[in-house]
From TrEMBL:
Pfam families: MFS_1
PANTHER family: MAJOR FACILITATOR SUPERFAMILY PROTEIN, MFS PERMEASE
Recorded GO MF terms: transmembrane transporter activity
Protein name: MFS transporter
Residue spans crossing the bilayer: 44-65, 77-97, 103-124, 136-158, 164-185, 214-241, 253-272, 279-298, 304-328, 340-362, 368-388
Keyword vocabulary terms for this entry: Membrane, Transmembrane, Transmembrane helix
Taxonomic lineage of the native organism: Bacteria, Pseudomonadati, Pseudomonadota, Alphaproteobacteria, Hyphomicrobiales
InterPro entries reported in the protein's UniProt record: MFS, MFS_dom, MFS_trans_sf
Amino acid sequence: MAAKDPALGNIRILTIAQALGGAGPPIVISLGGIVGKTLASDPAFATIPVSLYNVGVAVGTLPAAYIMRRFGRRHGYVFGALIGIFGGLLAATAITIETFALFALATVLIGLFGAYIQSFRFAATDSVAAEHRATAISRVMVGGLAAAIIGPQVVIWTSDAIPGVPYAASFIGLSILAFLTLLLATRLKPVAAAAPTPASGGRPLSKIVRAPRFILAAATGVVSYALMAFIMTATPLAMVACGHSVGQATLGIQWHVLAMFGPSFFTGRLIARFGKERIAATGLALIAGCAVIALSGLAVANFWLALVLLGVGWNFGFIGATAMIADCHTPEERGKVQGLNDFLIFGSTATASFLAGALVHIDNGWSLMNWLVFPATLAVFLPLLAVGRRAARA
């Protein structure tokens, strides 16, 4: 792409927007369970706000895809950022007046904003050739590396900024990040598609979802993301239950998110070298390795190393799955296929978060959760290896 190519400029804007808007989830993940435990009448409800954040992402994916298809990426992202601004302010208000239900509603709204953030990776592929899609996705995901620093640091710097109302300022900070994302969205330029888009809507969605290629791609994304959320949601609570501090849990999440996005500097090149399926399979193997480390002990080092492996595994699995999905549709089918894919991913992620909140509080719940990782990863790992080998031979 030429230096003045609007597509390249958009990728740069999306990368910065990912860094700012993508800092919201670490704030919700770090504080959602802690604030939930403070406000809820029953400690078993503590992780509901985090789970509802994922519900918001899942519920928001299809409407977000429609809005962006109808009004364009730029207008869609501005609208999504407005939701994020309101959601952060509502969360701060809920903490101030100590209302659990209002806080839970706020995390749903922040999740709706997250649905737009998640589509940045697809927006990067709108106008690039097929062979450059994985690299474009990786470039935008690099912004998550900065988000991994910004989000937890906002929590650390602002947790007690408002005397007597801990954590309220952290969600005001989230609103400020959403506002900066809005400003960036207004700078996106319209770009021509890499190939002319026919006027028809393409194949029926019912036909696309029956294709083995789509099934494997979607399953890879679902397993990678749902298992990541399953373990990550429970980890801060498990660490605190084991006698570790909230600060140690927050830093663990920061290392985890760094591991999620740090490999994006080279994931695209690895995919180009070894293939999408093999890199995604490697990601699932690393997620299984996370469970092995978690089952080996309850020291801070075990939790942190497990979170790092979980993050790298998610990166390989999710970016690999995203590149696989990009091969499953034509330009005119893009919106509905991407929207359905994200709905499946974040619907399963929300379910995994709810299960995590329930399981982590039972006897040996942390161990049970990690044992469940193995059959889930194996179910997708083997088909990925088979497809990867066929692709390599071809």
